[in-house]
Design a protein that fits this description.
Elements: H1 6-34, E1 36-46, E2 55-57, E3 59-63, E4 66-69, E5 72-73, E6 77-80, E7 99-103, E8 106-110, E9 117-120, E10 130-133, E11 140-144, H2 147-157, E12 163-166, E13 174-175, E14 193-194, E15 202-206, H3 207-214, E16 230-234, E17 243-248, E18 252-261, H4 281-287, E19 298-307, E20 309-312, E21 316-321
Parallel strand pairs: 15-16
Antiparallel strand pairs: 1-2, 1-16, 1-21, 3-4, 3-20, 4-5, 6-12, 7-8, 8-9, 10-11, 11-12, 13-14, 15-19, 17-18, 17-21, 18-19
The protein binds 2-acetamido-2-deoxy-beta-D-glucopyranose (2 copies).
Amino acid sequence: MTVDDPLNLVLALATASTIKYIGASLWRLKKLAKYEFVGKVTALDLYPAKSCGAISLQSANCTRGGLKHSGVTDRHWMVVRDDGVKVNIQQEPKMTLITPSIHGNKLCFDAPGMPTLKVEKNPKEDPSLYVDCKPKVKAMTAMNCGKEASEWISKYLGIKGAYIVVSTENMAKRDVSELVPRPWLNVPETTDKVTFSEVSMCNIAFENSLRDLNSRLANPVSMGNFRPNIIINGSLAFDEDNWLEMRIGESVYMRILEPNPRCLLITVAPDGKRDPNTEPLKTLRKFRKTKPYGDSPLFGVNTAIDREGIIKIGDPVYVLRKPVT
Ligand SMILES: *[C@@H]1O[C@H](CO)[C@@H](O)[C@H](O)[C@H]1NC(C)=O
Ligand SMILES: *[C@@H]1O[C@H](CO)[C@@H](O)[C@H](O)[C@H]1NC(C)=O
C-alpha cells in the first residue's frame, strides 16, 4: 500500500490508531486480568466523629478523604479534652454509644440520657474558632464546634472542658507520609491525606477473618469492635495478608498502605463495654503475626484511595496479589 493516494493515507492512519487503541486496551485488560475476585461488600459504615458510632449505608462515595455521604466525610469530627488531646474509647468506652445521624444541613448526635445535639454539617470557616488539637502526637488545626457541643459532650462523658472539633473541607489535613514512620506495604504518596483517623482514609475488615477469630473465642465479638469502614465477605480467612491493591466494583481503586496493627481499642464492644480479659486482643495475639508491628496483631487493612467512586453493598471486590517470592 502506498500513501500517495489521500484515501490510502487516511486508511493507513486509521489502521495505526486502531492498532494503538487495541494495544492500550490489551495492556489495560492484562492489568485488569490480574485482579482476582475475592468477595463482596457486605457493609459500609461511616464514622463522622472519631471513636463515636457509625452511620450504616447502602452506598457511599469512596473519596480520597474517606467514605462520604450527604456531605459528611468519615472521621472529620473529634472529641478532645480541654488541652486539645483526643479522648479515646479505651479510656471512655461510652463514646461508642454516641449515635450520629444526618438531617438536612445538620449532623446530629444522640446518646443515652442526653437530648439530641445538632451541629452544622458544613460549618462556615471562622478563624476565631481555630484550635490546635492532637489526633496523635502531632498537633493540627481544627475548628471548635462551639459552646453547646462542648457542654453536651462534657456532660455526657463527665469530662470538664471537653469539646468537639471539626476539620472543614478546606482546612489542612495530615500528610500520611509524615506520620510516625511505619513499615509500609505500599509507601504513602504525598497526596495521601488523613483527617482524624490514625493512618488510613478507609479501613477495611473481612467477615471470613472474623469467623476464624470467633471460632477461637468463648464469647464471639462483632465487627463493631474493629470499627471498619467497609466490610467484605470472602472465603479464605486472612487472605488479605497476600494482597497489594484492591478494586471495589468497577471504578474504585485503592492501595493497601499496611495491614492494620491492633491495640486495646478493639477490646471495647459497640455496646460500650470493655472486655475485662482484653479479648479479642489476647486471642488475636496468639495466632496472628505481629511482626513488624511490635506486639500488635494484624486484623484488616488500612488503605489509600487512588480512584474515587460510588461503592454499594453487594459490589464485587477484586485484588492484586503480592508477587510470589
Ligand atoms: C464523590 O466525591 C468526589 C470528591 O468529593 C466528587 O468529586 C464526586 O463528584 C463525588 N461523586 C458522586 C457521584 O457524588
Ligand atoms: C459470607 O460468606 C459465607 C461463606 O461464603 C456465607 O456462609 C455467609 O452467609 C456470608 N455472609 C454474608 C453476611 O453475606
